[in-house]
Structures are given as C-alpha cells and as structure tokens.
Amino acid sequence: MPRSSKARGRSRCSGLARLWPLALLALLPALAGCVSAGPPALGPLFADPAGVTSSRGGRLVERPQWIDGPDNVDFALYARVMANQRAELGRAPLADGEVPYWPGQPVSLECGITPTAQLYLCAPYEGPREWNPERVKPYLAAMHVATSMQLAPLDLDGQPVAGGRVRITVDWPEAAPAPSDDVVVLPRILNRPQPWEYTRLYPAMAMEVGADGDVILICVVAASGLTEGCEVFFESVSEVGFGDASRQVYRNIRILPPTVNGEPRRAMAVATVRWRLQ
Prior knowledge:
- The protein is an alpha+beta fold and 278 residues long.
- The protein has one domain.
- Helices cover 28% and strands 25% of the residues.
- The longest helix has 14 residues.
C-alpha cells in the first residue's frame, strides 16, 4: 500500500506527562473519544491473563510476610497525594464526604517481586479485560498504592520471595480519611523526549494507514530517581505499533521522584504520549 503524502511528511508528536494516578483518571473519558482508527485497547499486561503470569514468572508466593502490605496502607497519605494532584491540575477540592477512591470495591492484583522485595508489573488478575474507563479506575488507584508496599526477603515458610509473584487485595475503607499533614511534592520529568525522537520512532504501520494515536504508559520510578520500566496501559489505536514506540521514546526518561516530608519515595508515574502526523 503506497504511503500518502501525509504519511510521507515529517511527523509532529507531543508527549504530555501527568504523574500519579489522578491525572490519568481525569484523562480517561477524553482519551476514550480520541480514536482515529481501530479500537481502543488495554495493553497486553492488563488485558491478557496468560501474559500477566508469564511476564512476571517465578513461583506464586502464597504465604508472604509483609513489612508494609495491604493491611496497613496509609490511606490518609494517599488522600493527601490526591488532594495535591487535584490542586496541581486546577481541579476543585473534594467535597466533604467524597473519597478519592472506590469504597466497597476491593481490588485484586497480581504483582511481580523485585530483588529488593518490592512490587512491580502489577495488574488485575480478577478484573477488566477490555477497555472501560469506569471499570479500570479502581484498579489504577490500587496499582498506585501497591507501589509503596514492601515484602520481607523471606516468606512465612522461610523461602526467598525475590523473582516470584504475589497476589494482593486492596480493600478501600468506607469512611474517607482526612488528608494527612505530610508535605508531599509530586514527581517531575527531568528530560522530556525531543520532537526528533517521535519522528524517528513513528510506527511504520501507523504511517501506512495515516493513523494518529494516544498511549498511556505506566512507569515506576525508584526513590533514587531511576526509572524501573514502563508498560503500556492503554492505546487509543491498537495493533499499529504505538505502544512499543512509546516505550522506546520513554526508555531513557528520568523522573525526579516524589518526596514525603523531604524523603524521596518510590512511586508509580503516568505518562500520556500523543502521536500525530502532519
């Protein structure tokens, strides 16, 4: 299929980063309507149950020993982070009684375990397998909470947990906690991708069909500032290569980690990558 003059032209793309989950929640309805061609879809990590387990590998740790786990999540700190994020986005504060999560909707995730016994590649093992903005929101919030969890090096049977996988349930409280008094500074991207990187990596298949697209990446930034990796969460146009290209663009991204009372914290970051032809 010959390329159109539009496809042969220089591509113009922009990367819009919004870090921590609330920004993504605000973008979901808008992105659902941005499709240029083809169906919107969750990334393979989040849509394929078989791929979930094979991506993480290792044994299932059935008797984990937690240092910071699902039973002692600091929901007040989470509420503070969400309040700060709303302020940064120019959104009105939550009304009295509103909660920045989904009470009464427990969320189950399966996560890989890093060499330092932290969680990564978290995704629902009981949850949505197709794109639905409302259904994925509670899972996204739970993935954020899971990033701060910490396992002991050995499980309750005395076996090492590193390299394995674990299943957790985040049970959101019914009553909204007041935001904590912690001083929270949100993360910042230090080296945004340059326009020539988008031009060089524009997917050939997308150019052939003249497709524009938007991709949401889920990244994890360590307290040291190193990006531990990014996974495709959503593609507005699937099966034309936008997901893989977005991971390439953000491969060397550097993110200033968030801080809580001056202490850097490991966190989940959300980046929206917009691909446009001109």
